[in-house]
Amino acid sequence: MQRTLVFFKPNAIQRKLVGAILSRFEKKGLKLVALKMVSMTPEQACDLYKEHIGKDFFNPLVDFITSGPVVASVFEGLNSVQVCRNLVGNTDPSIAPPGTIRGDYGVTVRKNLLHASDSQESALREIKVFFDEEEIINYSSCLEEHL
To answer: pLDDT tens for residues 130-140?
Structure first.
């Protein structure tokens, strides 16, 4: 099973979309193994988005994701990185297909509700920004054998 990080940006919390969006991942069959609300520090933001340092959107992104609480989550499942990316949809909500989270709820590119890891390598690194290993819960779901 693969793990991936999804975190809800401040506007998802402000718009009260966390429950609706979380349920979409669970309904897809992904298993939630970690969840918490945090105030992200600029250092965490820089660590999370270090590949974008120097790009024109980097500083506004850091300002935005540190402007309020975020909800960090770890999902587990077969091909969870790609499954989550498909559920989230294109970074630009105006071209994200209906049925994706950004297609249904997103408004702008810069404030696009969610971050989802883009590869297994990124997921392993990004999960550590928010969670210690003991905060990720290993458990069996009675539904796993039926997926």
So the answer is: 999 999 999 98
Tokens for 13, please give them: 């919390």
Kindly calculate the radius of gyration of the chain based on its CA atoms and give it in whole angstroms. Answer: 15
From 8, 44, 115, 131, the catalytic residue: 115
SS3 content of the chain, % helix, strand, coil (to 5): 45, 20, 35
Annotated catalytic residue 115: yes
Helix, strand or coil, per DSSP, at residue 112: coil
Q: For the whole model, what pTM was predicted?
A: 0.92
Note whether 31 and 137 are within 8 A (CB).
no
**N-term to C-term CA, the chain:** 13
Domains of the chain, earliest start first: 2-136 (3.30.70.141)
